Amino acid sequence: MVITLNNGVKKRIDELGRIVIPKEIRKAFNIRNFDELEISIDNDKIIIKKILKLYKYKEKFYNFMNILSNSLTMLIIEDFKIIASNDSVYVEGDTVIEDVFNDKTINKDLVYGKKSLGLMYYEPIIVESNLLGYMVLISNKELENSNIIKNIKQSIIDFLV
What we know:
Layout: H1 23-28, E1 37-42, E2 45-50, H2 58-65, E3 72-78, E4 81-85, H3 99-102, E5 110-111, E6 114-115, E7 119-127, E8 130-139, H4 148-160
Antiparallel strand pairs: 1-2, 3-4, 3-8, 5-6, 7-8
């Protein structure tokens, strides 16, 4: 994405080392107050990159999960920790074993040592080429050949963007 600013806007660093990111850039990258930014160096360039995290959307996930049927358990995973669930068996902060996501087997009956009530499906949540985490669905019926997984995942991505 190329953003052209009016005649190469120049900004000064203030006495505390701060610089204002121009409004056009903040708007183009959807940077809001209190968003986290990663600052790195690449040779002679300073790179500022927006950090996308799922945790800040935790309340939205809970609201979203309330509309799901009782037969469908949903977990949102960030850094292999559960940040939201609509089932009290899966507690926020519990760690999900990384091997679950490295194994490409879709149907599982164990999640981090706790028995699930059905089949497990997981999908990566990717926004702007960043892997933010995973959506895990546990269902007592076959979902693999339905559009349910795709629709739920798209709904999550839509409200993240």
